[in-house]
Amino acid sequence: EDLPEGVAPVSGPRAPLRRRLGTSPVASVKLASGCDRRCSFCAIPSFRGSFISRRPSDVLQETRWLAEQGVKEVMLVSENNTSYGKDLGDIRLLETLLPELADVDGIERIRVSYLQPAEMRPGLIDVLTSTPKVAPYFDLSFQHSSPSVLRTMRRFGDTDRFLELLDTIRSKAPQAGARSNFIVGFPGETEADLAELERFLTGARLDAIGVFGYSDEEGTEAVGYENKLDADVIAERLAHISQLAEELTSQRAEERVGETLQVLVESVESEDDGEVAIGRAAHQAPETDGQVVFTTREGLVPGRMVEAKAVGTEGVDLVAEHHELAEAAR
């Protein structure tokens, strides 16, 4: 049965029908709800329940509807996309679904958010780095890199394992994007733990880094932990790592100068000296990451995917020249 005009299929388990607001060429599609992980700092499982995957047919139906509304990029979201399909009997269901989504008429890019490093597998890395129209983009939830802090968080990994994962990804897709969030000042975190995090950040070459100071969240195991740091110590560490993150992500942007990018034009904005076209490359997710600022807006309209060359930076943002214009000027 056809849905009413302007109404989308459900956007998640037991969710109501959804009307699309706005005309952005980018939209999110929910893959699942809930989470089965028990990180000591996170209350999500207590109020969102167990991990429940949407049926692939529902995800495909919503993606087709969005494409009919003019959407060019779909961002798949959930608390843990690497677990998609495990409750449906197929932990590798995401590897099957991604090529099907990329084949939807009108869709130019599929992006996957929030991946758990401990659940990354060779087949998923292969699909994310080699499937046409699937962005080689890795939003990896590292949270820290000191093994002792990670154990206290009830997570897994360490600096060297995480760097090895990034090396594996870049060996398959050298221009792959990578971002992550980190918590500093976690109960029991030492100066040595902080130095280990710095070692990881310096070697990871992440495109975007979010840094947060620890604070108690009601309903989590960590609320009852001892060895909590003073607020001024947490604030000092937050400021230090945030400054380092800003420097490192700006350096990473500079490394990308000279790269050829596939950029989805998202908006044309008015500024004092005229109009400026803004877009995002495959390594840049909406809202959380940097963006691409074009040297001219000529021939660029929202929703158009264009090839461009990075010619400069503005902090974490890239300045790029549209290839068609560059060729016409020769």
Number of helices, counting only DSSP H or I runs of 4 residues or more:
9
**CATH superfamily membership of the largest domain, which one?**
tm_1862 like domain
Radius of gyration computed on alpha carbons = 21 Å
Mean pLDDT over all positions: 91
Q: What letter string, H or E per element, gives the SSE order?
A: EEEEHEHEHEHEHHEHEHEEEEEH
- The CATH class of the largest domain is identified as Alpha Beta
- Which strands sit side by side, in order, in the main sheet? 11-12-13-15-14
Strand segment count: 15
How much helix is in the residues?
A: 25-40%
Distance from first to last alpha carbon: 54 Å
The CATH architecture classification of the largest domain is Alpha-Beta Horseshoe
Strand content: 15-25%
Number of domains as seen in the coordinates:
2
How is the biggest beta sheet arranged? 5 strands, mixed, barrel
- The secondary structure category is alpha/beta
SSE map:
Elements lengths: L6 E2 L9 E2 L6 E5 L1 E2 L10 H5 L3 E2 L2 H13 L4 E5 L15 H10 L6 E4 L9 H9 L6 E3 L7 H6 L6 H14 L4 E8 L6 H14 L3 E6 L17 H25 L4 E12 L2 E7 L11 E3 L10 E10 L2 E6 H7 L1
Parallel strand pairs: 3-6, 6-7, 8-9, 9-10, 13-15
Antiparallel strand pairs: 1-2, 4-5, 11-12, 11-14, 12-13, 14-15
Pfam family, one: Radical_SAM
GO molecular function: 4 iron, 4 sulfur cluster binding; aspartic acid methylthiotransferase activity; metal ion binding
Protein name: MiaB/RimO family radical SAM methylthiotransferase
